[in-house]
Every structure is written in C-alpha cells, then in structure tokens.
C-alpha cells in the first residue's frame, strides 16, 4: 500500500477512482483497517487505486480535508471528493461502497 505525501497528492487523485486512507501509525483501528485495504485493493485492482496519507507527516493535507479522527477514508473520482467513511469498515462493506462509486 503506497503512502503518499502532499507533493504527490494532486497528481494521484487527478484521474480515476482513488481511495485515500488518512491514518496514523499509533492508531489501533488504522492497523486493523490495513489488511482490509490490501484485500479490497487486490479485489478491485485496475478499477480503484488505494493510497494512504500519514496525518502526523502531512498534517496540512489532513487539515485541508477536515480530518478530525483516524482512520478517515475519502474517495475521489477524477480529483473530486465523492465519498467519505470514518473508522473501521469491514471489507465487504468497503468493496460495495467503492463499487457504487465506479
């Protein structure tokens, strides 16, 4: 799972469907979500790109999107936010939500 920074953010979300997971290394639910993201990334390969942003490393980016708690996932479609989920989300529920945004 690729961790991106503020410099890569705009180019990463500019086209297609991209889920950005705003996380922190010290966050328990974030650690639980990581294998779910890996699984969904494999299942939706070629349709959805999933990347991560460390809120402790990129606080400005997190603030720009109003991230108040982690994990928070924002789904972008061609650069525009189209969905937001907070907290741990099971793989089937996450996959279903993403498929609706394709």
TrEMBL record:
Coiled coil: none
Active site: 27, 30
UniProt KW Electron transport keyword: yes
A Gene Ontology biological process term: cell redox homeostasis
Organism: Amedibacterium intestinale
Domain Thioredoxin residue range list: 1-102
Keyword Aminoacyl-tRNA synthetase set for record: no
PROSITE patterns: THIOREDOXIN_1, THIOREDOXIN_2
GO cellular component terms given for this protein: cytosol
One Pfam family recorded for the sequence: Thioredoxin
Disulfide pairings: 27-30
Higher taxonomy: Bacteria, Bacillati, Bacillota, Erysipelotrichia, Erysipelotrichales
Keywords from the named record: Disulfide bond, Electron transport, Redox-active center, Transport
Site (Deprotonates C-terminal active site Cys): residue numbering on this chain: 21
InterPro entries registered for this protein in UniProt: Thioredoxin, Thioredoxin-like_sf, Thioredoxin_CS, Thioredoxin_domain
Residues carrying the site annotation Contributes to redox potential value: 28-29
Listed PANTHER family: GEO12009P1
Gene Ontology MF annotations: protein-disulfide reductase activity
Record-stated family: Belongs to the thioredoxin family.
Stated name of the protein: Thioredoxin
């Amino acid at each position: 799972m690729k961790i991106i920074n503020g410099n890569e953010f705009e180019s990463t979300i500019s086209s297609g469907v991209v889920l950005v997971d705003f996380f922190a290394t010290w966050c328990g639910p974030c650690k639980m979500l990581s294998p779910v993201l890996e699984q969904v990334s494999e299942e939706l390969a070629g349709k959805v790109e999933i990347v991560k942003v460390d809120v402790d490393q990129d606080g400005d980016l997190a603030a720009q999107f109003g991230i108040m708690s982690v994990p928070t996932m924002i789904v972008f479609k061609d650069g525009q936010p189209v969905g937001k989920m907070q907290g741990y989300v099971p793989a089937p529920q996450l996959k279903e939500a993403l498929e609706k945004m394709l």
